[in-house]
Write a structure and sequence with these properties.
single chain; 273 residues; alpha/beta
């Protein structure tokens, strides 16, 4: 009884704080929420999310989540989500968030991307430093996302495969940036050529076999949210600011690129904590 009463009081305090800092009178009118470094668990969030049907931008980074809370099924208007730096091993709870355009899920334990195949509006996806190990399964999940333009998979096992970048560029036809580096026209052309059999040799010689890594048959810019997250998959856990709940999610200034990145045509990695 005492534990239940304490949980209820904690929930009421959290709701009151959201209303105070969002300048709203009702949770149903709140659109932007940030709950960073608040030691939140799934049990803390599930009763709260049900009361936020208009939510569009949500940051839950640096908390104690182990999976996507069931309350996400009520967030039909959510378009930008930051769950960096948690302990999440599954994205299953996001299947119903079909309005989602930006997902930042760096520094978790995610291995299966199949739940993302339902998110047809997804344009930006950061999965830096997770557990994605199968390149084939990854591409199968992402291939059906027609608006995906920015992707970050560095720090996953698949990123160490020699054909990783070429395979991703070939399978994701609208991709503009991979791991912070722009996809060049020459890379796009090379990936397309590698996917097709070579022309017959002059003089009627037999056709050469397709190059290894040929397509296995797996067959944004969406308007951004009113204020999108800037992200860095490599952002550190060392920052220890207290939790904040705001009506507008603040963007963190992008880090200045090094001279070497500029020479290689790399984009600076945006930062989101």
């Amino acid at each position: 009884m005492i534990v239940k009463r304490c949980e209820q009081q904690a929930g009421e305090q959290l709701e009151a704080l959201i209303l105070e800092l969002s300048s709203q009178e009702s949770l149903q009118d709140v659109r932007d929420v940030t709950l960073r470094s608040h030691s939140l668990t799934n049990a803390d969030l599930e009763p709260l999310l049900v009361k936020l049907p208009q939510l569009q931008l949500l940051s839950l980074s640096h908390n104690l989540l182990h999976q996507i809370p069931m309350g996400f099924s009520h967030l039909q208007q959510l378009c930008s989500l930051n769950i960096n730096h948690n302990h999440i091993d599954s994205l299953e709870g996001l299947r119903s968030c079909t309005s989602l355009k930006e997902l930042y899920a760096a520094n978790n334990r995610i291995g299966d991307l199949a739940p993302l195949s339902c998110l047809k509006n997804l344009a930006t996806l950061s999965l830096f430093n997770n557990a994605v190990a199968s390149l084939e399964q990854c591409m199968r999940a992402l291939h059906g996302l027609p608006l995906l333009q920015e992707l970050e998979l560095e720090g996953n096992p698949i990123a160490s495969e020699p054909s990783y970048r070429q395979h991703a560029i070939r399978e994701l036809s609208n991709l503009q940036s991979l791991d912070g580096e722009l996809v060049s026209p020459s890379e796009r052309s090379a990936a397309a050529e590698r996917a097709s059999p070579l022309a017959p040799a002059p003089g009627g010689g037999r056709d050469e076999a397709p190059a290894s890594g040929a397509s296995d048959g797996m067959s944004d810019q969406m308007p951004r949210c009113s204020q999108s997250y800037k992200h860095s998959a490599g952002s550190s856990d060392s920052t220890s600011r207290g939790p904040s709940v705001t009506n507008t999610i603040s963007a963190v200034d992008a880090s200045t690129s090094s001279n070497q990145q500029q020479q290689q045509g790399q984009q600076p990695h945006p930062q989101v904590e």
